[in-house]
Amino acid sequence: MSEFTVGDEEFLLDGRPVRLLSGALHYFRVHEAQWGHRLAMLRAMGLNCVETYVPWNLHEPRPGRYEDVAALGRFLDAARAAGLWAIVRPGPYICAEWENGGLPHWLAGRARTSDAVYLRQVERWFGRLLPEVVSRQVDRGGPVLMVQVENEYGSYGSDAEYLRWLASTIRAAGVTVPLFTSDGPEDHMLTGGSLPGMLATVNFGSQAREAFATLRRHRAEGPLMCMEFWCGWFDHWGAGHVVRDPADAAAALREILECGASVNLYMAHGGTSFAGWAGANRGGGDLHDGVLEPDVTSYDYDAPIDEFGHPTEKFWRFREVLAPYADGPLPELPPLPTQLAAGAEVELAGWAPLADVLEARGGPVVTSPVPPSFEALDVDRGLVRYEVTVPGPRQPYPFLARGLRDLAVVYVDGERAGVLTEADERLEEPVAGHARVELWVESLGRVNYGPRTGESKGITGGLLHERQYLHGVRARGLRLDALDAVDDVRLRALPEDGAPGLYRGTLDVNGAGDALLELPGWTRGFVWINGFSLGRYWCVGPQRSLYVPGPVLRDGVNDVWVLELERAASAPYVRSR
């Protein structure tokens, strides 16, 4: 049993000064069989602590239906076994480039405020989650030193009553270790996101002295800590791959430590946003209100430990910076994970058109005067087929999907007519009546940061023929998790034209291990191997392959499913890195 406290200038463990050298590692972005290796890599880099968020929507996909909340506890146990302390950031909002910032799609009330309906939902969730933390606090022999209240709240709101309620609810659940907030080093963010008497930390990627000077204007006392040192960054589909020079990142880390501060590397190891859980941002400068920018599946983050768990040049530079602050010699690196021994091609053997997949695994058909949202159809990740009739006879007029989020493949009387996006809501060719129009709308990830977090998905402004709204819309949703088991989908022979649909194949592996999956010529969709969802692929890049954790593969025959939403091509294959 130990006592961790916040002193006037330093953190104290059993009364002795301690500096937290932490690294972010999200248990939900790493295969559980690989937690031990990744945590050992943190120790070898010179860290003494691990930090993790907790995504509410992953663990409560429907109200009152919980899924593996105990995973957090198992991860904290693994951290303790690895000799690391732990910082837990339970939200309820986490950002993290994660779907909807971790908030469930089904939330009622005004999220991230003191709205009574929302608070009741948070209270129920925390009542289920926080026991995993309480029993693992440092004063009970566990690794947990601190727990965060909300996340970067000053970037979003200024409801101090909400923050105070969260803090009291966390305390009432039995959390006794110090609580803290984290915000950008700007006056309005620290004013809106911090609470009097509670440790405030700041998040930044450079200019540590200026950031801490801003923090000191708000907190004259208390330890300095950069809760998120952005040593890399994330990627968006259709944009370039973002990297940060290792020497520049190491110099920024050194500056933080020279200020006498504690630090949390964000990310120490990014991992992967498996199963379509990657979020999205809105462009448009500081307002975060512009075009949708969906995040790629890889959360490698240009981190010092890459997506495969290997050390990068940044790792070795950080290790050199961190070593003088360690209690003794740094541990040696653990053995690298096993790599796939030999590449192999997926042998495709069957296919089902999207309509058949929807019939077998979709939700109920809903008929509405206006297009229902994804939320109304209980679809978090996945797609919705909207159908509407253009009455006739009438001459050709423009067809529009107003307020479209995010992307729609459109068919007119069964023939592909084009792809619509938020920026281009009008079909290129006019539509004459009588006609049947189908729009297969895919969510590319809910916004995870900024004022448009929590916005609805689907067709939000109606379907129009010329200026006339079309009513009697039929809609049916297909949740992505409904495809984790697809034995009831009847398969046909492979199509000759690479038509969209669900493809089944097998992969014969000799020497299983970490691998990359390539889908040359395929357009956009999702992949499952042995029931494990690898996430989204998309030919627009910059990500060109999907990471396959070694524990997912097995020697011999492996089951592969690919949901292609536009056009398939040659057989996928796996290879070593």
TrEMBL record:
Residues 10-322 form the Glycoside hydrolase 35 catalytic domain. Residues 371-472 form the Beta-galactosidase 1-like first all-beta domain. This is Beta-galactosidase. Transmembrane segments: none annotated. SUPFAM superfamilies: (Trans)glycosidases, Galactose-binding domain-like. Residues 500-558 form the Beta-galactosidase galactose-binding domain. The active site is at 152 (proton donor), 228 (nucleophile). It holds the Pfam family BetaGal_gal-bd. One of its GO terms (biological process) is carbohydrate metabolic process. InterPro entries: B-gal_1-like, BetaGal1-like_ABD1, BetaGal_gal-bd, Galactose-bd-like_sf, GH, Gly_Hdrlase_35_cat, Glyco_hydro_35_CS, Glycoside_Hdrlase_35. The keyword Hydrolase applies. GO terms for molecular function: beta-galactosidase activity. Belongs to the glycosyl hydrolase 35 family. It comes from the Bacteria. Keywords: Glycosidase, Hydrolase.
